[in-house]
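Supplementary Data S3. Sequence and structure tokens for construct A.
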Amino acid sequence: MIGYVTLGTNDLQRAARFYDAIAAEMGVGRMMDFDGFIAWGAPGGAAGIAATKPFDGNPATVGNGVMVALEAKDKAQVHRLHEIALASGGTCDGPPGPRGDSFYAGYFRDPDGNKLNAFVMG
């Protein structure tokens, strides 16, 4: 149902380093790359993610209650994605671990403060 998610950034090159590392672990790369906008994913694949300088020219801000969930292939990849996020300028917003009986996730924020998680069900 979701085609892609776009997150605002005030520093596109910093965001690019962060999302390049996350995308590489997930087996995808950049599929669009413009002066003020970069998108990662695979054409015809699962939903992608993009970082952009806001088109209205105002500073990017974090949406309160907004989170992007990245589906990992297994618990080990949840841990790798969380570690990659922190090593790439992100911050921890909840270490990897079980959340209930059938949900396993690690939460982090990108360098602009946007909240993401890596998760697996089961």
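Construct B, processed identically:
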Amino acid sequence: MPKQGDEPVRDTIDAINHVHATTLALEARASSGESGAYIVRDAAGARFILKFGRGREFEPARAAQVTAALRALGYPAPAYVIVGETGGTRYAAQQMLAGELLRHSTLSPARLEAIVALNRIQRGRAVEPGADWLRELGQSILEGFEEYCRVDSLRNYSPKTRRMLDRFERIAEAAGDAPCPVSDVVHWDFHGGNILVEGDRVSGVIDWDGLRFGDASFDLMTLLFYSYRDEHVRHALWNEARAHSSEPMLRLYLAHVIIRQLDWSICNHSRYVHDFFTGFASDLMRTYLSDD
């Protein structure tokens, strides 16, 4: 049910209804994810996911274009039914897809095979080459970003995270200008909280608003990080990514994902949760990111 404090959300919905002649009403905050998403319902009872934002990480118009092309190829991405902007705030209402979140389930061999097949669909589907792909990945490790993936949080948190950051900087320097694909669609946040399954079928991949054009192996490395404890899964994801991308680039992608998660945990989670992810990342680093 809507709660007190949802007035700004209702105001945005009112503006959307006025511009698009729709009848959306707030039903509830979406339970998944750690950023703002809301379930809305129209007068006919159809339900949608509504998201909105101002930062450069939220680009629903581009997501609508790219996911429409992926859906035409059989990719289970949601349809964007309303996209627009009001008062400097961009918004998007998306189709609700069926299924349960993968993070509450198991990545079985059949599901893993389906995910790899979807990742292959993403390859070569960029609207334009990702001219800033390598620069952005290098920046995320050597300088950090403003709103997330902030390296200062790792530098200041503890001697252990500072040593980890030193290692990541060496990985970024070693990657240099290593060749890699730049014409793939990259989801950019490809983990179990954004993957829906029904049985052995992947029924949906959601949250495309921050997508990039670059190397789709980045998505496999993101999933590898969060699936690291399953040895079969991590080996399969690594081998699939290695068939398309160089090892220095895969290490660069893993370094980025670790910084992103540790920074988020430092800023938003308890020390217990952060320490869990730090230990988790340390295990992964011993396998894939050890000093040569």
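The chain has a mean pLDDT of 92. Residues 100-288 form a domain with the Aminoglycoside 3'-phosphotransferase; Chain: A, domain 2 fold (CATH 3.90.1200.10).
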